[in-house]
Task: inverse folding
């Protein structure tokens, strides 16, 4: 596999930082609840990439195991979050986060 | 070779993640997130974690994003107009994102990964049985806790998203869940079904839209007092 110059780990980490920053921007600029959710998934994935990169650099498998747990927690989070969106939509007929402000009043 | 694969899939990941946050339609956002996840999975293989890459494809792309697509189509989510405030606010968030990126990059450069380039991958380093041994020996308790978490999440999602049964609809206006003000009174202080029909009740229970319809349809379908 390594028939060329190996990629420095720093590049993977920089890519993870870029993906995380893109996810941050998305979570702040979207108005639709599901799009915000997608941006958060993107940030989680950037963190996973950084974990795997460090795991490679340090030659340990702890990072991979942590990513395994992150995947499981992300699955649970997606299930509960989407169920919440369905419940909110059933009641308010929208998932626009600017109009779901019943906690503010 | 490795460098070329990295370059192609890193560019693909960044490009498709930009599509995720820029596209107006949530369906296209979800589909391009699949591309991002696939590219990151290829990078996982390059980093010697083929098992995690497989999991990423199976769980993330195969299950979670399909769930997203289901919900988007079920709710018929419209196009996202972006936050109000126009270009100035968007510029501000873009600057914030750039700050996040440069901050993390600066920390990375300062932290100076010790030990030079990583050791070349051996068969032992990517072996699945080593990973499994570590997972099921050292991390057995967290593994079990994650299993419990998934069980609780499944039950919670079912409870949140289901529709109420007939008995609950009949009981909802006086039940402790449907009306938080009746909490102190307990269930033995029944109210008439039409109580509180004039004032907008706090939307507390998932079934209260049906309950409202049963209570005379006092609540409009659109948002009362919602700010545009």
Result:
């Amino acid at each position: 596999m390594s028939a060329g110059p190996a990629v420095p780990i720093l590049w993977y980490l920089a890519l993870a930082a870029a993906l995380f920053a893109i996810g941050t921007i998305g979570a702040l600029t979207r108005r639709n609840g599901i799009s915000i959710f997608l941006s958060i998934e993107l940030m989680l994935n950037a963190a996973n990439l950084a974990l795997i990169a460090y795991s490679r650099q340090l030659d340990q498998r702890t990072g991979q195991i942590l990513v395994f747990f992150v995947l499981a927690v992300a699955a649970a989070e997606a299930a509960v979050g989407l169920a919440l969106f369905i419940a909110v939509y059933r009641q308010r007929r929208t998932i626009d986060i600017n109009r779901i402000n019943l906690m503010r009043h | 070779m490795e460098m070329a694969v990295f370059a192609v899939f890193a560019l693909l990941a960044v490009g498709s993640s930009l599509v995720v946050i820029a596209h107006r339609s949530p369906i296209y956002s979800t589909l391009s997130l699949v591309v991002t996840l696939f590219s990151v999975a290829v990078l996982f293989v390059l980093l010697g974690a083929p098992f995690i890459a497989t999991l990423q494809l199976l769980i993330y792309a195969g299950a979670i994003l399909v769930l997203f697509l289901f919900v988007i189509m079920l709710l018929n989510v419209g196009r996202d107009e972006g936050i109000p405030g126009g270009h100035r606010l968007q510029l501000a968030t873009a600057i914030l994102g750039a700050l996040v990126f440069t901050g993390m990059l600066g920390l990375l450069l300062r932290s100076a990964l010790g030990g030079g380039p990583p050791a070349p991958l051996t068969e032992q380093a990517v072996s699945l049985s080593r990973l499994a041994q570590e997972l099921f020996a050292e991390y057995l308790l967290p593994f079990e806790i994650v299993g419990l978490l998934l069980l609780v999440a499944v039950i919670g999602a079912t409870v949140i998203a289901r529709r109420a049964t007939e008995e609950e609809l009949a009981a909802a206006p006086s039940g402790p869940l449907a009306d938080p003000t009746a909490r102190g009174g307990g269930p033995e202080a029944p109210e008439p079904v039409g109580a509180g029909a004039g004032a907008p009740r706090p939307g507390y229970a998932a079934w209260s839209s049906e309950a409202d319809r049963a209570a005379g349809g006092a609540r409009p379908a659109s948002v009362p007092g919602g700010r545009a």
Summary: Residues 62-92 of chain A form the longest helix (31 residues). Chain A touches chain B through 82 residues (CB under 8 Å). The mean pLDDT of chain A is 87. The CA atoms of residues 86 and 95 of chain A lie 9 Å apart.
